[in-house]
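yo

u said u wanted the structure for the complex thing, so here. seqs first:
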Amino acid sequence: MAKAEETEDETEILKGTSAVAKGVMSADPDVVSAYPITPQTGVVEKLSELFADGKMDGEFIKVDSEFNAASTCIGASAAGARVFSATSSQGLKLMSEPLFTASGMRLPIVMAVANRSLSAPLSIWADHTDSFAERDGGMIQFYAEDVQEAVDHVLLGYKVAETVDLPVISTFDGFILTHVQEPVDLPDESETSEFLPPRDPTYTLDPSDPKTMGAYARPEHWMETRYEVHRALNESRDVIAAAVEEFADVFGRDYTEYGGMIDTYRAEDADYVLLALGSIAGTIREVVDDYRARGEKVGMVRPRIFRPFPAEALRDALAGKEAVGILTKEVSPGYESALAGEVKAALYSADDRPAVQDFIIGLAGRDVTKDEIAEMIEETKATEREMDFADEESWPQLRDEIVNEEVDFK
Amino acid sequence: MSSEHQDHTDEITHEDDLWNPGHRACAGCGPALAMKYVTEVAGEDTIVANATGCMEVVSTPYPESAWGTSYIHNIFENAASVAAGVEAAYQSFDRRKPDEFTSMDDMNLVAIGGDGATSDIGFRALSGMLERGHDVLYIMYDNEAYMNTGIQRSSQTPFGAETTTSPPGKESVGNDTHKKDVASIVADHGVEYVATSSIAYPQDYKDKIEKALEIEGPKFIHVYAPCPVGWNFEADKTVELARLAVETGIFPVFEMEDGELTDVRTVKDRKPVEEFLEHQGRFEHLFGDEKDEETIGEIQSFVDGRAEDLGIDG
Amino acid sequence: MSSNDPYEDLTITTGAVVEPNTSLVNKTGSWRQFRPVIDQDACIGCGQCDTFCPDQAAKPIGDGDVYGIDLDYCKGCGICEAECPVDAIEMVREEA
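structre next:
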């Protein structure tokens, strides 16, 4: 977790979306494509103000849709530009088709995603359904716990993206982190230019050295192109590790635990651990402290990066625990939480793997309280090692009284 | 006339070709001619953004490329917005990194798409690019159907034409709509230059490309390019049909500048549409034992109406 | 004649980016069933065959006052024969 340090940096109280916009400003993108969608709109609005006041001097394209936000970013990135866009939910879904091509075409696009639920029904509030739906797109995914991280992950995103030539999604929970005011150390220009050199693209579209980009690949070649993307994502873990080290040197904020892949809180000697992504971690820390004050060994593990998946880091952090409770704001209907499924798969071959209980909570912005988290810890404590698949998943916030008694197919 | 074996292959080089042979377009492909002419005018200092479709697929199977210019293909429906993104990058580079990249003043940005990619699925991207005023020439090559996927109807498929999704039958005369007037729609965006042309008149097409490229801002050219396989005619008739389409008024050739019709290619003694239709298998069902006078009449009447509106008859 | 063969030492480039002018390795001349033969005496060097060839296969030869066919790429479509204003081109069936 990032704490705004008292340094010579400007520490300002900033609204989440404004902070992210200012973080983007320090990265000095050549092209920004902007389209509104709640709750990220504040990001593009703030960026447009910064352009209007001449504080940013790249191109600002007021596109007609998120689909074309992604498409213009792709064209610009292929031309050699550093680009940025922001979206949420339906917008991310709409840009999914072109966005998936960015990994195959190895374009280092960085996009901020204010996590928001996906229709239907329509919802404007936060959960992780949207970014999880893009899991297989070959993009690196960062999850921020607070506004400071939301800013820092953009800078880390550019650094990593431009080294590995892969797109990055930098997520932060809608409303919870977009519309709050938190103290933030804004990166200043000299620090950012130290950390983030100008982009040096492998190929561009410049006529001085023409290339053909976006060829189609036949069966005898496509598998290898996919392998290259997969391999690049896997090896980006090393790049992430180096990037967070350098980040700590330049900015003084330390994300170096587990090479930047996961952040842990009082987990090392814990018997029971809660695992979660994003802003809910802040509340979980407080509950962990309450338990620790009572002498109970409870901790938290929070992946910072979801793609590439921190399998090794999680196996190390979760080994030997009695039980892990996964608090997740998504579910893959018809099976289980995607996060929980991936954690369990990572643990499948681990020595000494813990029992795992999944908790589907907080969907579409439903508030998760400290008491509810404590109850989930209690339930985790009661989880048997011999897992009974029927009991693995729990929806503790489900309002039984408004759900039908039984499924009623025609 | 001697038919002894001539072979001048070794004397011929393709060094100056920016649309290279070895591409996999069908023999007699109309759109391939449209691509050739574009590259001849735009030259090597050009970036092409192409949509998925015949011209993309035949020209770029990894690791081959028929393009000599810089080129990007992304997906089916976003050639216009990919080009817009490239343009925005260069606007930015011209201002901020002029020593690192070629200047926009010294190069051309051309977006290319087929009729399906442009008039249907790519309409949103096209409209956005035009409305925002990007400095891009968009060329729509029109073979009047989704040809790359095997001849399906698009909004440019003419009335009565057979395609696999508009087959004639007991309840159908073939395609039941007339061509969507894309040129007018584009012009209504306030675009400075819109033109139609046909691959039968390469000089006209090339002049229009050249004229367009001199203009700053969005411009659009709709080029008629027959497809021997999709329209079902002998491959050597491609240019003839592209000519006949104009001579019958089926495909009007004109320019619109700032929304006003400024030049129309007039046709003396406009030929009846039948002369165009009867050479093509896709209209064969109109010429069975009994000619389908009603459908042919509908086609003729639509063409007559357009001819009158545009002042084609001269 | 270009010598860049993209299949030589083929590896997957970053982003599967392709070099320009590499389709030349694909000799589409193998497709054809008919081959154009140009009567060099009748040819007036107008270049219509070159203009209307989708495959860049008809080009000026010698001093540039007559035209010849690049048989590596000619697909035998016959447009050149159809468009030649002086009927100097005949499509002749390829030997089996």
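The first helix of chain A runs from residue 16 to 27. The longest strand of chain A covers residues 110-115.
cya
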